[in-house]
Amino acid sequence: MDIAVVGAGSLGSLLGGLLAREHDVTLVGRDPHVARVAGDGLSVTGVEQFHVWPAARTDVPEVADLAVVAVKSYDTDAVAAQLAGCELEACLSVQNGMGNEGTLADALDCPVLAGTCTCGARLKGPGTVAFTGRGEVVLGAPEGGKSSTADRVGAAFADAGVETTVATDMPTRLWEKLAVNAAINATTALARVENGALANGPGADLAADAARETARVARQQGVDLPDERALELTRRVVRDTATNRSSMLGDFEAERSTEIDAINGYVVRTAEEPVPVNETLTRLVRTWTAGRDAE
Questions:
Q1: pLDDT given at position 294
Q2: How many domains does the chain have?
């Protein structure tokens, strides 16, 4: 399969590297990383260690069988516009937050799939990505149900040795992921702590409150996500990624824009009744962003 991975950061580079063991892969990202990959290939270290030679460029190709979108949620509009000029058979979003699949579907003529990925990845430098934790790719139709496109894409991932599940319940899976992200990302970013700091104490209580609110909003939207399920998943991720720094904490440290609007902000916008914890986290992160931009 000819696969374009759009957003060759940590996760995009790892997925691209794994897929390149079996498929023709093009990494689309920024220099100097893609320039190094184009010249010297991509080194994967950590859990698995190997070297592959995907194509690499700063713009999307004209044709691909599949586009895997791994950019930050605030870049989805721009990427959707770029991919509209690419001849595609399918597109898969593995992004954080909610609403990305709809943005892509509005711009593209091909089927758009939703996906989640629990693999740990860290970009160590140009041309090198660390595989920091094994995980799974789950993908399927955003609205749920069976999808022949999802079956085909899932088989392509599995052929490359990526642990993959083709799911018929993606709405539930996406809300589960949102509950975990809403609990962990803003909390760790604002407190400047690793994920493991939310295992107990006030951080754990705050994260649990955010997860419960998110589960309640999911149920308002017709998705069966009990509070205990959201809490169980959050605790599991905190435990399994205790030494990891969340992506939003990384954004804070690098003084980049955050995905708050697609995570806690999405919970606030979608809620039919007040969600004070998610609203407070959203306002605090936006306050930090405003202060950074004013400097």
A1: 76
A2: 2
